Amino acid sequence: MSATITEIPETVALRDEERQPCEVWTRVMGYHRPVSSFNRGKQGEFRERVYFDLERCQVAGHAD
């Protein structure tokens, strides 16, 4: 068995007809659901979420 090394382009460009929607899932009440199945209000809440960033978090009294 021999390995063949092929070059992979740094960027991949898709034509519009090759694209498809990306389905986003999120954890709700202990289980995962697609955001597309949410009602309008829940989709709005999802868009307004603020995500925790460990790198930007500082613990009070912790010296770096």
UniProtKB/TrEMBL annotation:
GO terms, molecular function: ribonucleoside-triphosphate reductase (thioredoxin) activity
Question: For this chain's UniProt record, which GO biological process terms are given?
Answer: DNA replication
The cross-references to InterPro entries, in alphabetical order and at most eight, read:
NrdD
Short name of one Pfam family: NRDD
- This protein is called Uncharacterized protein
Task: Please give the organism.
Answer: Rhodovastum atsumiense
